[in-house]
Amino acid sequence: MKDSIIILCGGGPAPGMNTVVMSVAKTFLSNGYRVIGLHGGYSGLFSKNPRTQDIDFALADYYFNRGGSYFQMSRFKPKDSDFEENFNLSLFKDNNIKLLVTVGGDDTASTANRIAKFLEAKQYPIRNIHVPKTIDNDLPLPGNAPTFGFNSAKDEGTHLAKTIYEDARTSGNWLIISAMGRSAGHLALGIGEATHCPMTIIPEMFNKTSITLEKIVNLAISSIVKRKILGIDYGTIVVAEGVFHDLDPQEIKDAGVHMTYDEHGHPELGKISKAVLFNDILDKKFKELGLKVKTRPVEIGYDVRCQDPISYDLSYCTELAMGVYDLYARGETGCMVYVDPCGNTNPLYLKDLQNEEGKIPPRRVEIENGICRNYFGHICHFITPADYEAAKKYISNPEAYDFKKILNW
Fold it and tell me: Of 4, 95, 147, 341, which is least surrounded by CB within 10 A?
């Protein structure tokens, strides 16, 4: 029987999923392996009747450059009891599987490590190699290397935000854009910088103060009033959904929002529109201040996850896939694949990346770096002490809307 590998996809989709999976398949097929794809993410490994499908060259060649994921994904995360009661060990034994390739984020990587340890204890040693995926760009890769899918999502998000900005200019309105990013503001910042958005609000900005709804609102008003002073009556504000994730749950509840939580304990931000939530709160504040401003909410999220990957991710995902074979041939396991800018493959061992709880901490935006310093220093519009007198035409207490004072910078 041929040696086999099995590939599964966990978490949510990102541009390049098919490119990774089908490029892994092509690489291993060319080296004489059988390649099995598993539907349903980890739920398939804990099922008596897993949905599997062999990947041949024709299938791989047809789907490698397409968006979405040919193999259905899942956020299933096994409990400790699932390993002893439901794990399908025969799937590995009957198919002579030597390598488990997982494609996903931090939760997917951590579960892969648990499975490898479990199989080793059952005297069925199997290697596992993880391919880091997330449009949030929040996995800790060296040298600020992106996670695959991020650049394609940012490209589409920028395309949408450019059109939205033109709508704001044309209609004389402000459009409030919420961008995905559960733990980090990389996507929102990338979209905001690329479109010259006058205010982008990300959780990392609050490095010297706590996040509150009042501060988020005041940052938005700071930009709106500054532009009024400049004679500009339109604009966009990009807000990373992570600022709502980091809010005190009681404050969210007091704002009239009922939040549900997923099986990992994360707020299910996808079930509510953060743009609508923020827009409604802003409207109330405008009325309170007597400001005549029209705002409209726009959500950028699910529309950037399953698009076709751009050229960058097509190349990058192919390199990551070939890197999986390279690491496997070198005897590596329990690691994420990392490809440097020159195309060289290196392992990032999960045990070195995980914290005491066995989770991989997210990589957040370095708010002190040159990108942030320059963007907030030169492109954004907000109230400073020099604007206090002019701002009094619109607000009675401009100091409360001073950008640096809000953030304690």
Answer: 341
